[in-house]
Design brief:
Elements: E1 2-5, H1 7-16, H2 23-36, E2 40-42, E3 47-51, E4 58-65, E5 68-76, H3 88-96
Parallel strand pairs: 1-5
Antiparallel strand pairs: 2-3, 3-4, 4-5
Amino acid sequence: MLVAVTDHAVERFRQRVAGSLDPRAEIVSRVARAVEAGRVEERERGTVDVRDLVDRSLIFVCRRDGAELVVVTLWEKEGGVAPPRVPRRFTDALERRPRR
């Protein structure tokens, strides 16, 4: 399966997971391995959640585009093995901003 990654997903990965020289390649690798392992959950409106094999609280949110899986963003599951690196109050504050 082909995996593509948006710039937004790369930025979110940089914010949450440190130590990667090429975050886009790291995301592609992690998503491909997780898909092979069957860690995929089909969601509403064509969204696909892929749970990371290395960091179990990390979830890649994807969309299908033909034979390609496009990683749109990622987030961390609360109540997982470790607490989220970015607390929910920060991501919730982004949702409350008025649209222009």
